[in-house]
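Exercise 7. Given the encoded structure of a 210-residue chain, write a plausible sequence.
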């Protein structure tokens, strides 16, 4: 096994002790909180480094599930950590709608399914936020929003194609009225479609770089 950094040794030790104590791996969020990392992405990066160095390995037949190499009693697959790759398809405006972004992924975001609240078997993607029209919902310029492909419910925050332009807003559907998009910043008006409103994804969580 390739030599580990001090931090990697600490993380591996924490995982081993926690696994032996509880009978299952700690979640990415628990590892993040224990070491004071600013994001779960840092934890995912350390896990990948530990895998590359031969300290942990994936369990066959379980995508993104790991075991510590050398453990006499491996962690059961159902209790392991599950990390998925989410494609990032560029930027989306949290402001006034703008032109459609490219449909090609520009990056991959690795995230813990449990921490992000992702539903298994659903299609997910991510977009980087530009603008401040959703600040009162806790979504800021520079955040990355993770979205799930499904039909929206009234009150959901959505990535929408409205009259040929894209934006991130809250979806509002009132009885007897056509749906519209609402900003979460009083400086921006609500947007009512003239001819087209297509929901591309429903926001489930955000990733913030500090």
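Solution.
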């Amino acid at each position: 096994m390739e030599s580990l950094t001090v931090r990697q040794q600490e993380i591996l030790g924490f995982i081993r002790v926690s696994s032996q104590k509880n009978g299952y791996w700690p979640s990415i969020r628990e590892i993040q909180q224990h070491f004071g990392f600013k994001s779960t992405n840092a934890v995912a990066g350390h896990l990948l480094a530990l895998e590359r160095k031969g300290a942990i390995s994936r369990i066959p037949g379980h995508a993104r599930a790991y075991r510590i190499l050398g453990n006499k009693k491996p962690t059961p697959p159902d209790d392991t950590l599950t990390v998925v790759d989410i494609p990032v398809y560029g930027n989306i405006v949290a402001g006034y709608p703008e032109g459609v972004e490219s449909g090609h992924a520009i990056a991959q975001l690795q995230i813990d399914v449990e921490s992000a609240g992702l539903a298994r078997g659903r299609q997910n993607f991510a977009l980087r936020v530009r603008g401040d029209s959703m600040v009162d919902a806790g979504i800021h310029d520079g955040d990355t929003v993770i979205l799930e492909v499904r039909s929206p419910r009234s009150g959901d925050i959505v990535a929408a194609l409205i009259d040929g332009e894209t934006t991130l807003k809250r979806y509002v559907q009132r009885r007897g009225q056509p749906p519209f998009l609402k900003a979460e910043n009083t400086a921006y008006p609500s947007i009512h479609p003239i001819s087209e409103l297509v929901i591309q994804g429903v926001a489930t969580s955000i990733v913030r770089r500090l």
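Remark. The first strand starts at residue 56 and ends at 58. Students should compare their own answers with the one above.
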